[in-house]
UniProtKB/TrEMBL annotation:
Listed InterPro entries: Nup186/Nup192/Nup205 (IPR021827)
Similarity annotation: Belongs to the NUP186/NUP192/NUP205 family.
GO cellular component, one term: nuclear pore inner ring
Protein name in the entry: Uncharacterized protein
Protein location: Nucleus
Entry annotated with the keyword Glycoprotein: no
A UniProt-annotated Pfam family: Nup192
Molecular function in Gene Ontology: structural constituent of nuclear pore
Domain of life from the UniProt record: Eukaryota
Lineage: Eukaryota, Metazoa, Ecdysozoa, Arthropoda, Hexapoda
Length: 367
């Protein structure tokens, strides 16, 4: 495991070590053994966790470093491998390796964990801090901060990891509480939606994991009566947004209406407001909710008119006003028809007839 701590000068060994860990920890017995091994002494516990944190905190790869076809250097691959390892480990029984690396106290009830910023009350920097910092840096990069860059695939896995912690009944409360203390992490990231980039699939997945996490936060804050925080999230999702574009207006030219005065030094800065639709409506445009038409099968033994008559007999109205087909009744009618022709049809014809009957059973008609 010490190879994980050698990431600065032996990154290939670090990547292999994380990959081996991911394979061996699929076994619950080995996984439980590793938890005890990693936390056997305070010095080993700090050393190993610090090694993982350093890997996640490492800067983007050297531009001179060789990259693969996805534009990934060795350090990006290490980050991705660690996030996969954490994602796999968090599903094991508590306490697990992911809980230890993320900063949970494995000797106490993890539900009662209280996270602090690194250094506060001697709290160490953990993988959870690194993941949050990684996601914050990605938001900065989207806003034009040239000091930061990110790989969409790594950020996608980071958002997924955060969602897994918030969806887990053992960890959701301490993690969401800590996210609120991080300058309202979810509010800040939600305000940056929708994401845009060249890797459209990854960007959509990032938004999906973030919105799922926000949904959990909405439910929890409503249950805990955290009205101010709940109000901020709801307003951010449902209220129309106003963007301000700063423009310079020449007041002297505006007052006099003369073009020759437009170069006068008396200028003032104003902002031009532009109304934008609610974020929730904007996000709906990313979802394809169109309904594809049901193709009409080509029948050999049934005529289309007879099929439509049978379907109309099997229609049932539901409370929403839709009409659905009772597939069980349709199946009985078709099977009765099959039994009626068995005496005159050949074995091949009966098989084809049965196939068309099965196709009919999969038809769902909506009006």
């Amino acid at each position: 495991m010490r190879y994980v701590t050698y990431n600065s000068w032996l990154p290939e060994h670090t990547l292999c070590a994380v990959g081996i860990l991911q394979v061996v920890t699929t076994s619950p017995s080995i996984h439980n053994h590793l938890v005890g091994l990693f936390t056997s002494t305070p010095s080993i516990s700090v050393l190993i966790r610090h090694g993982f944190v350093e890997c996640l905190d490492s800067e983007q790869d050297d531009p001179m470093e060789e990259e693969d076809e996805d534009g990934f250097g060795i350090h990006c691959h290490i980050k991705e491998a660690i996030l996969k390892f954490l994602q796999q480990s968090v599903s094991h029984s508590a306490p697990n390796v992911a809980h230890y690396l993320l900063g949970f106290d494995t000797k106490k009830d993890i539900k009662k964990m209280v996270f602090q910023q690194p250094g506060v009350q001697e709290f160490p920097r953990t993988c959870l801090h690194s993941i949050i910092n990684m996601l914050d840096n990605s938001i900065g990069a989207r806003s034009g901060d040239l000091r930061h860059s990110f790989k969409p695939r790594v950020i996608e896995k980071a958002y997924c990891m955060l969602y897994s912690l918030c969806a887990d009944t053992r960890t959701y409360e301490p993690v969401l509480r800590f996210l609120r203390s991080c300058n309202d992490f979810l509010v800040r990231h939600l305000a940056c939606l929708p994401f845009s980039g060249t890797n459209r699939v990854s960007e959509l997945n990032q938004m999906s994991w973030l919105l799922k996490t926000v949904a959990i936060e909405l439910r929890l804050t409503s249950m805990k009566c955290l009205h101010s925080h709940l109000k901020r999230l709801v307003e951010l999702l449902t209220q129309e947004q106003v963007s301000h574009e700063h423009v310079i207006i020449d007041e002297s030219a505006q007052l006099l209406g003369l073009s020759e005065y437009r170069n006068q030094p008396f200028r003032s800065h104003h902002s031009r407001s532009e109304q934008k639709e609610a974020l929730l409506l904007t996000l709906l445009s990313f979802a394809n909710i169109s309904e594809l038409p049901v193709p009409i099968p080509q029948w050999e033994f049934f005529s289309q008119s007879q099929i439509e008559q049978v379907l109309s007999k099997c229609e049932r109205s539901v409370s929403t006003g839709l009409k659905l087909v009772d597939v069980k009744q349709l199946h009985h009618i078709l099977m009765d028809e099959l039994f009626a022709v068995q005496s005159t049809a050949t074995a091949v014809q009966r098989q084809l007839f049965l196939q068309e009957t099965e196709v009919s059973n999969h038809i769902h008609v909506y009006h």
